[in-house]
Amino acid sequence: MQFKSQAVAKPYFIAAIGLFVGQILFGLILGLQYVLGDFLFPAIPFNVARMVHTNLLIVWLLFGFMGGAYFMIPEESETELFSPKLALAMFWIFLVAGALTIVGYLTVPYATLAAMTGNNLIETMGREFLEQPLPTKLGIVVVALAFLFNLTMTMLKGKKTAIAMVLMIGLWGLAVFFLFSFYNPVNVVLDKFFWWWTVHLWVEGVWELILGSFLAFVLIKTTGVDREVIEKWLYVIVTLTLISGIIGTGHHYFWIGTPEYWQWWGSIFSALEPIPFFGMTVFAFNMVNRRRREHPNKAAVLWALGTGVMSFLGAGVWGFLHTLAPVNYYTHGTQITAAHGHMAFYGAYAMVNLMMISYAMPILRGRAANSNKSQVLEMWSFWLMTIAMVFITLFLTAAGILQVWLQRVSDTPLPFMVAQEKIQLFYWMREWAGVAFLIGLIVYITSFFVGGEEEKAK
Amino acid sequence: MSESSPITNQAAASTKRLPGDLAIWFFIMAEMVAFAVFFSAYAFTRAGHVEMFNLYQQTLDRNLGALNTVLLITGSWFIVLAVQAAHRDDQKAISRNILLGFLCGGGFLAVKIIEYSAKFGAGISMSTNTFYMFYISLTFFHFMHVILGMVILAVLWFQSRKGVYGSHDANGLESGAAYWHMVDLLWIVLFPLVYVMR
Amino acid sequence: MINILKNPAHRAWLVLMIATGMTWYLGEVGAAGTWAIVAMLAIAFVKGRLVILDFMELREAPMMWRVLLEGWLILVSSLILLAYWISLK
């Protein structure tokens, strides 16, 4: 570790992995509820399990981003973190707030939770992904501001590299667009319109900058390719992301009551969104092929290549599948969306966090790379989780195609629940693929506790 | 178009080079794909509404459109001259030609604003009908590219005043120039397609 | 005059100006239908190719880039032609 204060990243990474486990467990419960509707009812109803599954995802990814940023910014700026104490304090605040929120979801009916937490002051709750009670939302803003303040001050006193700048733009964007979660107009069209400014502009906008910058950082470290070359790629990817992603928001505006031209704008620009992801794939492979040295941390390089490929497949290809308005007319809100969501989040954001953790954790634990034994195990977990996710996606896609056919395209369309029963087989297969994913995750965690001869820290 | 003979081809093989940076070409291709999709969307949608498109196309100002073509082509030409000046190290000519190219871009924007204010003043918007939706979308998207191109030219101009470009290194200038030519190329297709062809 | 035209950029500019005038003129006389469309597309193609080869200076560039850019021009013109052909039927 080059700077002592980078150590604050460690608790963030540990919390991220812990919450990741929680997310997967709730995913399995949820998957089972698709086929056994009353499983765990009334203790954990479907809507609560779903909320916990998606909220845990968002929170663990945020923990991962924060940990990664705390690790990366001091090293890029070549200076200690402005205030490690503030970073640790924010860690505990965020963790406690997150835990309390989940406990709230699980123990109190949602309406009661809303009444208890002052939702009548500013009505922000009840919208998908932004279900958090008001105090949690405010907590997120405080944590994000303190986090950004800390990193910005660090950068101001140190070097300002291009990849650190891209990361900071991504993180500032993340905070700014979250503010739209406080804006909840009564008009349902406007509500949805701006809701996407948080949701879409996060995952198909500023988060991609974070992804690109993390990827660039790890590639510089592990391949030894000139920073100039890597920065050039990053600039191109960032520009393409912003051009396609910002106007691409329109692919959510097809059927919510917005003017018709959004069908054109949304289709055309979101059809271009795969291009920056493809750029990232080419980027990762190109840099690894041109590597100037063999980094001992092979697992981190594998994650980097993996995120390059899987983000393109999940976000790019599976997104494109249903992004054109005439196609989306049939597929909107079906299991096709779920298939895309699973592989995109895993391929882009889960994997890039796992890559950062894979690169940084050994260093934080005082070695350049884990022992060969540990790395072999980690690579096993990579393949297990990735292949399991590919199958989850394929089964959901099959379920989705069948659903679209039975419920929407057919001359004699079936009601929703009847169609759901016809696709149970795919839900069962998806659930088993989910179990394989959990096994992969257990292997992943085990790899942290495997000893053996480690690479010395330099 | 003269094609080089095989012999000179071999001799030229070692000197074959892509002007400007690889990254900018990647970017240009992506942009051109976006416009290609937009152009085809226009053409194929028109096939379903020929009468409407033909009717409202008549309301567009072809003279201003043609004037804008002239401005962009001339602007592009000045930038080629700037690159040529860089290769013979004529510092003054580099800056002067970039500035002239920039002014042509400014002229384009001014003409476009006159055109837009007439249309918007008449109460036309993207929701008026499909033809106007495409007309405004395509020209406005291109308009934004002219602005971006001018920002790039402005950077090139400041750099050229510092004497950054010359026969030793024209990479940055060539990269910006390539982008500016793309803006021109796109308009060359857009103008006949939206304003004239029927 | 001959000397000036030795510079491919000047030559290209002159041709581009004339071609723009032709497109404008076709619009003024209200040319429509198959031949007008083909003529305008042909003019646009020649103009685009000049920009690619003489302005972007891809004449001496690696083959791949010439193919990509000129291919784009061919693709776009063909798609437009196809769409207009459908509309004339």
Automatic annotation (TrEMBL), chain A:
Heterodimer of cytochromes b (large subunit) and c (small subunit). One of its GO terms (biological process) is respiratory electron transport chain. Residues 1-458 form the Cytochrome oxidase subunit I profile domain. The chain crosses the membrane at residues 12-36, 56-74, 86-108, 138-156, 163-183, 195-220, 232-256, 262-288, 300-321, 341-361, 382-406, 432-452. PROSITE patterns: COX1, COX1_CUB. It catalyses: nitrous oxide + 2 Fe(III)-[cytochrome c] + H2O = 2 nitric oxide + 2 Fe(II)-[cytochrome c] + 2 H(+). Component of the anaerobic respiratory chain that transforms nitrate to dinitrogen (denitrification). NorB is the catalytic subunit of the enzyme complex. Shows proton pump activity across the membrane in denitrifying bacterial cells. The mononitrogen reduction is probably coupled to electron transport phosphorylation. GO terms for cellular component: plasma membrane. This is Nitric oxide reductase subunit B. InterPro entries: Cyt_c_oxase-like_su1_dom, Cyt_c_oxase-like_su1_sf, Cyt_C_Oxase_1, Cyt_c_Oxase_su1_BS. Pfam families: COX1. It comes from the Bacteria. It is a multi-pass membrane protein. Pathway: Nitrogen metabolism; nitrate reduction (denitrification); dinitrogen from nitrate: step 3/4. Belongs to the heme-copper respiratory oxidase family. It comes from Candidatus Dechloromonas phosphorivorans. Its EC number is 1.7.2.5. It is found in: Cell membrane. One of its GO terms (molecular function) is metal ion binding. The keyword Iron applies. Keywords: Cell membrane, Electron transport, Heme, Iron, Membrane, Metal-binding, Oxidoreductase, Respiratory chain, Transmembrane, Transmembrane helix, Transport.
TrEMBL record, chain C:
One of its GO terms (cellular component) is plasma membrane. Keywords: Cell membrane, Membrane, Transmembrane, Transmembrane helix. The keyword Transmembrane helix applies. InterPro entries: Cyt_c_oxidase_su4_prok (IPR005171). It is found in: Cell membrane. The chain crosses the membrane at residues 12-27, 33-55, 67-86. It is a multi-pass membrane protein. This is Cytochrome C oxidase subunit IV family protein. It comes from Candidatus Dechloromonas phosphorivorans.
